[in-house]
Write a structure and sequence with these properties.
The protein is an alpha+beta fold. The protein has one domain. It contains four helices and six strands. The two termini are 19 Å apart. InterPro entries: DUF2625 (IPR021239). This is DUF2625 domain-containing protein.
Length: 120
Amino acid sequence: MRALPIADDVAGGIFALNGGDLGEDTGCVYYFAPDTLNWESLEVGYSEFLQWALSGDLDTFYENVRWQQWREDVIKLSATEAFTFYPFLWVQSEEARTRKVISLTELWEMQYQMKETFTQ
């Protein structure tokens, strides 16, 4: 895929610069959203993304995946870990979500497998 990963988050999301395979807006930042399993354009370039990541409204962006003690839990993660949620974020559910620590690689592989399953 022609895209350059530039960041990830603890919910399994991936931020990437579009190299042409994600849409016609080459050079824009896209987000692989763990709640939709789709690449979504943020409609900003790299500089604007950095500004947003350092001083933007992250509370609103992550409002569906944060919990009361998220700061205390996130600080315990290594750079190669993330949280997986159950029911999965891409499943609409009124049930309270539980979470556990998982390797980023394992989480990404699971998400891509589920995406492939849903798009077949």
